[in-house]
Design goal:
The protein is an alpha/beta fold and about 475 residues long. The chain has a 9-stranded mixed sheet with strand order 3-2-4-5-1-6-7-8-9, sandwiched between helices. Strand 8 and strand 9 form a beta hairpin.
Length: about 475
Amino acid sequence: MDANFYNLNIERAVLSSILYDPVIFDDIASSMGEDDFYHPFHKAVFTTMEHLSASTLPIEEEFIRQKYKGGEFDSDSYFEVLSTTPLPNVKPYMEELRELSLKRKLFSYSNEIKAECMEQKSPYEVIDSAETKLFKIATASDSKDFRDSVEIAKSTLDYIKDMKQRGDNLLVGLDTGFYELNKKTAGFGKGDLIIIAARPAMGKTAFALNLASKTLSDGLGVAVFSLEMPAEQLMLRMLAAKTSIPLQDLRVGNLNDEQWSRTSDAMQYFSDSKLFVDDEGGLTMSVLRSKLRKLKAKHKDLGLCIIDYLQIMSSSGNKDRHLEVSDMSRGLKLLARELEMPIIALSQLNRGLEARADKRPMLSDLRESGSIEQDADQILFVYRDDVYRAREEKEKEMKAKAEGKEYKSNFEEKPEEAAEVIIGKNRNGPTGIVSLVFHKRFTRFENADTGFSERVFIDTKPPMENIEFAHIKL
């Protein structure tokens, strides 16, 4: 390879600096890896240093020599090059090695992209492949071949220590805001794919937005891909849930001075939050991947992604729809792991469940399921029995009118309805049913045993004509 892609003298100097002062290894290892070295011997030495550090053994030349005794690098000529004078400040040289490493990767990837262009692949597949490679370079997340048992044991022990320091015996992932749901799921973990499924009008979008609001209140960012409704409608729902002002009143602007004041404060709250909404139609998996990667790279504290909803997404291929949805669910799972954040995808259910006496959803009711059940870490069904009861009463009333009869219903619609979140799959915990309360006017789900969990917490402000709304960055 051209000498412009590596510098062996700097590689030797960095390694000799570590041998001279092993204390600096942790700082160097947090920014560099073996792939940042070009020479095979230098790669091997740095890898051995990593093993020694993980095993709490001294990073000394003698230990490194033992590793290669009788092997390819068992020669004084190799180790003599490590006697280079140590560097007084190693950081600038580390940065130069990293830049040279990036150049080598870019050069290698450019050749791979050329080869893919020659294959029978669509340009969209080549673009997606190129973006994946570039994203790995940009975030320095190139995968290693294998992680050995020493590294895995150390990483697991660090995880257990971190959990103990948190002092929370309930949550290990993102707080859902619902106590009983947290107990069963332990929160949404990094890299989890969560499917929220329901029949229309059950409130799956409202439930997802409630989860989004909780994440925002914890200071994390939320990305929403809304394929069904514009960003303004989503914001109206979140405002209703936040302010306890009926959604219908917000839609028509039927607010008194005190409600305008609450709305203004809620607007400011959301304006200051890290909420990002993409409401363009025709979203494909490759476009979603590209947008979310860029957003995550720009906003490291992005903590949750919501897609509303899975079956509306389009595909760049001409596959059977079941295969397309399966590819999307698999792609979302891989993306969640890549970005180390939970992704929530909303999904529709088949009509078949409405023919059953018990209309509570099951895994087999997932529409165009394909591999959704296999890929998802958690599958949550939103169910409200009153939706079906109201529908049945309406049908009976219409039937009675058609027959010229009077019909008096005993069913009364309530502003607060019992709701259930049915955990159909939970990869790392139990399944079961979580009871909630749904406040229809405010599109808000709440814990069943506490009633209003987040009521109005907004101070009284001047009348509407004196209020300036903050610009909401969606």
